[in-house]
Amino acid sequence: MSPDLAIRAQINLRMKANSRPALGISDWCQLFLAPNAARQTSAFRCSASGTSDTRRVLCFVYQRFSQYSGLDFSRVRPEDRLDHDLHFALVCWFDWTITFCEEFFEQFDLDLSDRFDEDEFNTIGELVMFLIDQVNGQCRSSSGAIAAAD
After folding, report:
1. Residues near 138 by Cβ (< 8 Å), separated by ≥ 6?
2. Are the C-beta atoms of residues 56 and 62 closer than 8 Å to each other?
3. Is the pTM of this model over 0.70?
4. CB of 103 within 8 A of CB of 42?
5. pLDDT tens across 16-58, in order?
Protein backbone atom coordinates (compact mmCIF):
# COMPACT_ATOMS: atom_id res chain seq x y z
CA MET A 1 0.00 0.00 0.00
CA SER A 2 1.35 3.40 -0.94
CA PRO A 3 1.16 6.57 1.15
CA ASP A 4 -1.92 8.78 0.91
CA LEU A 5 -0.37 11.92 -0.56
CA ALA A 6 -3.53 14.00 -0.09
CA ILE A 7 -3.67 13.28 3.66
CA ARG A 8 0.07 13.89 3.90
CA ALA A 9 -0.37 17.33 2.30
CA GLN A 10 -3.35 18.12 4.57
CA ILE A 11 -1.37 17.28 7.71
CA ASN A 12 1.60 19.39 6.62
CA LEU A 13 -0.73 22.26 5.78
CA ARG A 14 -2.59 21.96 9.09
CA MET A 15 0.66 22.04 11.09
CA LYS A 16 1.77 25.12 9.17
CA ALA A 17 -1.65 26.81 9.48
CA ASN A 18 -1.69 26.21 13.25
CA SER A 19 1.24 28.61 13.54
CA ARG A 20 3.67 25.88 14.43
CA PRO A 21 7.09 27.24 13.73
CA ALA A 22 9.47 25.01 11.85
CA LEU A 23 12.20 24.13 14.34
CA GLY A 24 15.79 23.40 13.55
CA ILE A 25 17.10 20.10 14.80
CA SER A 26 18.61 21.52 18.02
CA ASP A 27 15.41 23.31 19.06
CA TRP A 28 13.33 20.26 18.11
CA CYS A 29 15.52 18.02 20.28
CA GLN A 30 15.17 20.43 23.20
CA LEU A 31 11.40 20.44 22.80
CA PHE A 32 11.31 16.65 23.04
CA LEU A 33 13.60 16.63 26.06
CA ALA A 34 11.77 19.37 27.97
CA PRO A 35 8.94 17.20 29.39
CA ASN A 36 11.49 14.62 30.47
CA ALA A 37 14.26 16.93 31.64
CA ALA A 38 14.67 15.29 35.04
CA ARG A 39 14.85 11.90 33.40
CA GLN A 40 17.38 13.07 30.83
CA THR A 41 19.81 14.80 33.16
CA SER A 42 21.42 11.43 33.74
CA ALA A 43 21.56 10.62 30.03
CA PHE A 44 25.14 9.53 29.67
CA ARG A 45 27.47 9.37 26.75
CA CYS A 46 28.04 5.96 25.33
CA SER A 47 29.04 6.57 21.75
CA ALA A 48 32.63 6.76 20.62
CA SER A 49 32.05 10.15 19.03
CA GLY A 50 31.10 11.64 22.40
CA THR A 51 27.64 12.63 21.18
CA SER A 52 24.83 11.99 23.62
CA ASP A 53 22.96 8.86 22.58
CA THR A 54 19.73 10.61 23.51
CA ARG A 55 20.51 13.36 21.02
CA ARG A 56 21.53 10.79 18.39
CA VAL A 57 18.14 9.09 18.74
CA LEU A 58 16.32 12.43 18.48
CA CYS A 59 18.29 13.41 15.38
CA PHE A 60 17.58 10.01 13.86
CA VAL A 61 13.82 10.43 14.44
CA TYR A 62 13.82 14.02 13.15
CA GLN A 63 15.51 13.03 9.90
CA ARG A 64 14.30 9.50 9.20
CA PHE A 65 10.68 9.81 10.28
CA SER A 66 10.33 12.77 7.98
CA GLN A 67 11.55 10.52 5.15
CA TYR A 68 9.22 7.65 6.11
CA SER A 69 6.14 9.85 6.42
CA GLY A 70 6.73 12.81 4.12
CA LEU A 71 5.67 15.02 7.03
CA ASP A 72 7.54 18.16 7.97
CA PHE A 73 8.98 16.82 11.22
CA SER A 74 10.29 20.27 12.13
CA ARG A 75 6.63 21.03 12.97
CA VAL A 76 5.85 17.77 14.77
CA ARG A 77 5.50 18.06 18.54
CA PRO A 78 5.81 15.41 21.31
CA GLU A 79 2.08 15.42 22.04
CA ASP A 80 1.12 14.70 18.42
CA ARG A 81 -0.81 11.45 18.25
CA LEU A 82 0.57 9.00 15.71
CA ASP A 83 -2.82 7.90 14.40
CA HIS A 84 -5.20 10.77 15.08
CA ASP A 85 -2.97 13.77 14.34
CA LEU A 86 -0.21 12.45 12.10
CA HIS A 87 -2.09 9.53 10.47
CA PHE A 88 1.18 7.63 10.31
CA ALA A 89 -0.39 4.43 8.98
CA LEU A 90 -1.80 6.37 6.04
CA VAL A 91 1.10 8.67 5.15
CA CYS A 92 3.88 6.07 5.32
CA TRP A 93 4.59 3.12 3.05
CA PHE A 94 2.99 -0.01 4.50
CA ASP A 95 6.40 -1.52 5.34
CA TRP A 96 7.96 1.56 6.93
CA THR A 97 8.55 -0.27 10.22
CA ILE A 98 10.78 -2.82 8.49
CA THR A 99 12.90 -0.07 6.97
CA PHE A 100 12.94 1.75 10.30
CA CYS A 101 14.13 -1.31 12.24
CA GLU A 102 16.86 -1.98 9.66
CA GLU A 103 18.10 1.61 9.72
CA PHE A 104 17.91 1.78 13.51
CA PHE A 105 20.04 -1.37 13.70
CA GLU A 106 22.58 0.13 11.29
CA GLN A 107 22.76 3.36 13.29
CA PHE A 108 22.65 2.02 16.87
CA ASP A 109 23.59 -1.67 16.53
CA LEU A 110 20.32 -2.51 18.25
CA ASP A 111 17.73 -4.86 16.78
CA LEU A 112 14.20 -3.62 17.56
CA SER A 113 12.41 -5.97 15.16
CA ASP A 114 11.16 -8.22 17.97
CA ARG A 115 10.03 -5.42 20.30
CA PHE A 116 8.89 -2.49 18.17
CA ASP A 117 5.17 -2.18 17.49
CA GLU A 118 4.04 1.27 16.43
CA ASP A 119 0.52 0.50 17.67
CA GLU A 120 1.80 0.51 21.26
CA PHE A 121 2.42 4.26 21.18
CA ASN A 122 -0.22 6.94 21.34
CA THR A 123 2.06 9.92 20.70
CA ILE A 124 5.32 10.53 18.89
CA GLY A 125 6.76 11.59 22.25
CA GLU A 126 6.03 8.14 23.70
CA LEU A 127 7.67 6.48 20.71
CA VAL A 128 10.75 8.70 21.03
CA MET A 129 11.10 7.94 24.75
CA PHE A 130 10.85 4.20 24.01
CA LEU A 131 13.70 4.51 21.51
CA ILE A 132 15.82 6.53 23.93
CA ASP A 133 15.19 3.95 26.66
CA GLN A 134 16.21 1.13 24.32
CA VAL A 135 19.48 2.80 23.34
CA ASN A 136 20.33 3.90 26.87
CA GLY A 137 19.49 0.42 28.18
CA GLN A 138 21.87 -1.10 25.65
CA CYS A 139 24.62 1.29 26.75
CA ARG A 140 24.08 0.38 30.41
CA SER A 141 24.21 -3.32 29.51
CA SER A 142 27.41 -2.83 27.54
CA SER A 143 28.97 -0.81 30.37
CA GLY A 144 28.03 -3.51 32.88
CA ALA A 145 29.53 -6.24 30.73
CA ILE A 146 32.76 -4.28 30.37
CA ALA A 147 32.95 -3.64 34.13
CA ALA A 148 32.32 -7.32 34.85
CA ALA A 149 35.12 -8.31 32.47
CA ASP A 150 37.59 -6.08 34.35
Report:
1. 46, 108, 109, 110
2. no
3. yes
4. no
5. 998 899 999 999 999 998 765 444 434 433 444 435 889 999 9
**Beta strands, E only, 1-150:** none
Q: Is the CB of residue 3 less than 8 Å from the CB of residue 91?
A: yes
Query: Helix 124-149 vs helix 53-60: angle between axes, to the nearest 10 degrees?
Result: 140
Contact in structure between 97 and 69 (CB atoms under 8 Å): no
- Stated length of the chain: 150
For residues 3 and 92, is the Cβ–Cβ distance under 8 A?
yes
Least Cα distance to 3 among 79, 78, 90, 64 occurs for 90
Count other Cβ atoms within 10 Å, centred on residue 51. Answer: 12
Across the strands, what pairs with 123? 81
